Amino acid sequence: MTLKLIFDVALLLSLWSTAGCDFLMEGVLQMECHDRYFMIALDLSATGTDPRFEAVDGAGVHPITDAYAAKCGYSISVLPFLGLVELRASYFSCHAEKKADDFVFKFNLVTNYNGVEAFYALNKSCSPPLSWSPREVTCEVNYMEVSVRSEYPCPAGTNDWNTLRPTQSTSTSDWQVEFQRPDEQLPPMNLSQALKLGYMFDLLRGRIVFRTPYGQHESYSAGVNGVPVEVVHATIFSRKGWVVLLVDLVAACSMYEGSYDSGYMLWSTPEALYASYNRTQISVGLNGHLMEPAIAEKKGFIMERHNSTIKIGVPYNADGGYRKSFVSSGIFEFYIINLYLKQTLVDEYHEETALRFHRTLVSPLLPYSVVTEDRTVKADGVFTTYLEVPEDVELTSVQLNGKAFKVPFGDNLAYTLAEAVNLNNTHSYTLTVPLHDPVVIQQFSQENAAMFHKLDVNYTLVAVPETEPYYHKVSVMVLMDVSPPSFKTACNASGISFELAHRSYDYLWDISIGLAQLTLDLAAKRGYVMSNDSNGLLLYVPLFTQGYEYKDISLKGFLGTFEVLVKSHDTLKILTSTVKTCPFNSTELIMCSTNGWMTVVADLSLVLPHGKIPTGTHLSNNLCVAKEKDGTRVLYSFPLNSCGSAVKLLRGNVVYQNKIYYYFGSANSTEGLTLQCTYPLTGLYSLFSAYRFESDKDGVGSIIYPIENTKGLPSSTEPPAKPQTTAAPQRTRSPNLYLPSFYPTARYIKVSRTHGLLGSYKGIKGGVQVKQYPQI
Ligand SMILES: *[C@@H]1O[C@H](CO)[C@@H](O)[C@H](O)[C@H]1NC(C)=O
Ligand SMILES: *[C@@H]1O[C@H](CO)[C@@H](O)[C@H](O)[C@H]1NC(C)=O
Ligand SMILES: *[C@@H]1O[C@H](CO)[C@@H](O)[C@H](O)[C@H]1NC(C)=O
Ligand SMILES: *[C@@H]1O[C@H](CO)[C@@H](O)[C@H](O)[C@H]1NC(C)=O
Ligand SMILES: *[C@@H]1O[C@H](CO)[C@@H](O)[C@H](O)[C@H]1NC(C)=O
Ligand SMILES: *[C@@H]1O[C@H](CO)[C@@H](O)[C@H](O)[C@H]1NC(C)=O
Ligand SMILES: *[C@@H]1O[C@H](CO)[C@@H](O)[C@H](O)[C@H]1NC(C)=O
Ligand SMILES: *[C@@H]1O[C@H](CO)[C@@H](O)[C@H](O)[C@H]1NC(C)=O
Ligand SMILES: *[C@@H]1O[C@H](CO)[C@@H](O)[C@H](O)[C@H]1NC(C)=O
Ligand SMILES: *[C@@H]1O[C@H](CO)[C@@H](O)[C@H](O)[C@H]1NC(C)=O
Question: How far does the signal peptide extend, from start to end residue (predicted)?
Answer without folding.
Answer: 1-21
